[in-house]
Design a protein that fits this description.
By secondary structure, the protein is α/β, with parallel strands linked by helices. About 40% of the residues lie in helices and about 15% in strands. The mean pLDDT is about 95.
Amino acid sequence: MIYLDNAATTLQKPAAVYRAAERAMLTLASPGRGGYPAAMAAAEEAYRCRETAAALFGMREPERVVFCMNATHGLNLAIKALVRPGERVVISGYEHNAVLRPLHALGTRIRVAAAPLFDPAAAAEAYARELRQGASLAVVNHVSNVFGCIQPVEEVAALCRERGIPLVVDASQSAGILPLHPEEWDAAFVAMPGHKGLYGPQGTGLLLCGRQPGSRPIRTLLEGGSGSDPRRPDMPDWLPDRLEAGTLNMPGIAGLRAGLDFVRRMGPSDILDHEQRLVSLAAELLGANPRLRVFAAPDKALQGGVLSFQVTELDCETAAERLAQRGFSLRAGLHCAPLAHDTAGTGERGTLRMSVSVFTRESHVRRLAKALENL
């Protein structure tokens, strides 16, 4: 199998991730639930994972690294902590349903800062135009999970700082690959999964928490046991305990720390260079096929490790099935991001999406191009 669906999950993990998760299942209890060795070892493992993530993302306080189940969980925590029904929220034209659906469920007034593919200047101007009219929150998708287009987070963050508007960044496709600077951005929250560019297990994620305006604690999404201050009727008002109700996924957290260590050793800049080189090669090879419509950036620096395309004579699901029969794993359809497809004009047909990782090789890309020639 040639696995090219890393934007969904990096199925191929470093061997250390498997070993860490297995070791945790055999040796770790739950942190904060006792003073015996297995519980204390779990507390130490959880804190070391926070420290590793804080070092990778430039967070001065590891306590502001909150564990969650995935980016969707983190984005729900962030959005529902910051906005109320009827409030105005500005988002990009490439947001995932993990942003759209919570905002819709809250009854917010959603404004889309629409911009063409691979045009960060136009995206920044669209945000500026919408934010000038006021907003209770801005959300920006750092890298589109459909097209790989990199959004101008730094510019959007500057606009939000000028106007005192909280910013939430969806780093689902950028964490571990692109530079993330949550504290420089002054972001309220940055959400990311553990199972994509951080090479951790499914069921893991991180929410990086900035300093919230005012003195009131962050509004919670879940309440329950935290292992601390059990007599108070509400959740503790300090991080990370306030946002971590219930038992932590210690095998996942141990595996995630191993994945974070792997990313730090490899170096995000080298990972990005590898992924952009492969996507650029794929765009060149697939673009030479007259039966394909390829959505590639004019400059590889504008695109992450994701490339979408359409087969002119086949619907994308049929094409994906035929490629699967030939040993290729790609995703077809709307990719849980219908807004991105509407923005790019692909909403009627969807796309086929290939997405790479450090385990993807140039030969894999060339074999995909050959398979598409014969499709």
